[in-house]
Amino acid sequence: MNDWQQIEQDAAEWLTRRDGESWSEEDAAALDRWLDNPANRVCFLRLESVWQRLDRAAALRSPDFDATARERRGTLKRWLPLAMAASLAGAIGLYTFHDLRTPQAPTAYATAIGEIRNVKLADGSSVDLGTATRLRADVTDDKRVLWLDEGEAFFAVAHDASRPFVIHAGKQQVTVLGTRFSMRREQHELRVSVLEGRVRLGPDGGRNNAVELGAGGVAIATDTSTLVGYRPVSSIEDSLGWRNSTLVFEQSPLEDVVREFNRYNRRKLVIVDSSVKTMHIGGRFAANDVEQFARLLENGFSLKVEYRDNEIRIGRPAL
Amino acid sequence: MLDRWFAEEILPLEPLLMGFLRRNWRRHEDLTDLRQDIYLKTYEAARAARPIYPRAFLLTVARNHLINLAKRAKIIAFDEVADLEAISIDTVTPEQSAVARDDLRRLQEGLANLPKRCREVIELRKVQGLSQREVADAMGVGLDTVQRQTTLGIRALADFMLGGSGKLQRSRVTTTRYKTGGQP
User: Fold this and answer.
1) Residue A9 and residue B175: Cβ atoms within 8 Å?
2) A65 touches chain B (CB under 8 A)
3) Nearest by CB to B150, which of A2, A19, A76?
4) Per-residue pLDDT reduced to its tens digit, A151-181
5) d(CA B2, CA B71)
6) Among residues 79-138 of chain B, which lie with CB inside 8 Å of chain A?
7) pLDDT per residue over A45-100, tens digit each?
8) Is 80 exceeded by the pLDDT of residue B82?
9) Which of B128, B144, B172 to mutate to test the interface with A (most CBs of A within 10 A)?
10) Cβ-defined contact of B123 to A8 (cutoff 8 Å)
11) ipTM over 0.90
């Protein structure tokens, strides 16, 4: 008989320690040994799933959360200058003649295929990077400039009227007016979907030819044209499933579904029979589990599926 | 992969499982232990083959577990258990996507339900993104306090988020291990 109370307490302590700064390789190895026991493991997984879900809450920082953050700011103000003074003192000691205000190069962030990552910017904004994405950020006291060089990202932008939040994507430029929205850059096409608030999208520089998008707004911009439409906010939320490694489809053609999976996986899906391209698929899938999706096609739709090393080939229904 | 399957397919069903247990097991103080026993059995069973219908699978494991308990333990009075053989595996639950959309609200409620200090620690760490050390400095408390509150918060939030009461489960053992840096 397992003492679940004790196991849960231990699991929570492990999680706390792993969350701390003094976590070492030896700790990780010890945790692995502890997790070898499935009773410990299920308990740990349960707590871990909730603990990770909390990260998403930060990414989705809503006005309510901001309110609690503001309550706290009094305390933060008290120690932030102290911490800054301390680090400045250290810096001066080392580089006496170095100009401390020398602008820093933008910070670069990148994800591999299938990886997603949350990044907190210095201004309190949060960015979720999608699969195979490169982003640079130059956030200082007087400006917030970012470059989406490749891929997809979801932005929860901290409101600050004095520092416009500007994102460059090729020739296009998105100016944020305090909001939550996503951008996806593929070859010559940029797609902007707004969940909340307003953003302005237009060619670099001028305000001419710019379009403004509100909640539910979707714009697809190429170098020469911009298409604007509105979709239900729930459908935009669906398209953001990647932020928790989920792909959501509502009766999408298999061709589109396959393209989406291939953005997240090295093992590519290939449709070898064009008659199945237009087959419609709906549901929620783990983005990184292309094998599970293939099995579903095989078992659920009786498609002929052939597993090779680097790809999975999908053919017409096996009769 | 098994871990992820468990986290993504089984754990979200916890409200359903707890509802099932509450309806079919009279002694409610057993529920937490029952839940964990059932998780363990589900996890072990899925090792061999991943079930296609996680919901039906979990409820079947739950039902079998209750039946076995009732049969094995003669001490349990008959009326401890509802008419177990008649328990049907109903599959009516709210839409998954609706659950996901409710997630944030539930999280906020969960945070709001925590005792003040515990909530502060969790919010500074997770919402504001401070490290544990920074949280300790910001609140003017020791690192061990931050860690103790974090541990409490994790457990309470798990219960709340996954459909329980979210009441703090103070551990029966005192936890002074952080100071010494020993292994839990």
Assistant:
1) yes
2) yes
3) A19
4) 899 998 888 878 888 999 888 888 886 678 8
5) 31
6) 96-97, 101, 103-104, 107-108, 120, 122-129, 131-134, 137-138
7) 999 988 887 776 554 443 333 333 333 333 343 344 344 443 333 333 333 333 33
8) no
9) B128
10) no
11) no
Q: What is the pLDDT of residues A289-305, one digit of tens each?
A: 888 888 888 877 788 89
Closest in B8, B108, B124 to A72, CB measured: B124
Domain tally, chain B = 2
Average pLDDT, chain A: 78
Query: Domain end: B86, B107, B136, which one?
Result: B86
pLDDT confidence of A8, banded at 50, 70, 90?
A: very high
Please state the rounded mean pLDDT for residues B101-123: 79
Under CATH, to which class is A245-317 assigned?
alpha beta
Give residue A205's pLDDT.
54
Spans of all domains in chain A: 4-59, 107-236, 245-317
Task: Please check whether residue A38 touches B, CB under 8 A.
Answer: yes
Alpha-carbon gap, residue A270 to A259, rounded angstroms: 9
User: CA of A213 to nearest chain B CA: how many angstroms apart?
Assistant: 23
> Does B100 lie in the same domain as B45?
no
Select the residue from B10, B109, B127, B179 to test the A interface by mutation, using most A Cβ atoms within 10 A: B127
Of residues A16, A58, A64, nearest to B154 (C-beta): A16
* Residue at a domain's end among B86, B112, B139: B86
Domain identity same for B104 and B68: no
Contacts of A303 (CB under 8 A, 6+ apart): A276, A297, A314, A315, A316, A317, A318
Contacts of A61 in chain B (CB under 8 A): 127
B151 pLDDT more than 90: yes
Summarised one tens digit per residue, pLDDT across range A185-208 is 887 788 889 888 888 888 765 556
Domain A107-236: which topology? Jelly Rolls (2.60.120)
- Check whether residue B51 and residue B11 sit in a common domain: yes
- For residue B58, give how far its alpha carbon lies from the nearest alpha carbon of chain A (Å): 14
Give the residue-averaged pLDDT of B133-145: 89
- 3-class DSSP state of A270: strand
Q: In the predicted model, is pLDDT for residue A17 greater than 90?
A: yes
Task: Report if residue B91 sits inside a domain.
Answer: no
CA distances to A14, A69, A175, A281, B39 from A253, in Å: 44, 43, 33, 6, 36
Residue spans of beta strands (DSSP E) within chain A: 107-110, 117-120, 126-129, 134-139, 144-156, 165-169, 172-176, 180-186, 189-196, 199-203, 211-213, 217-221, 226-230, 246-253, 268-271, 280-286, 303-307, 311-317
Tell me which residue of A262, A309, A270 sits closest to A290, measured CA to CA. Answer: A262
Domain ranges, residue B128: 96-180
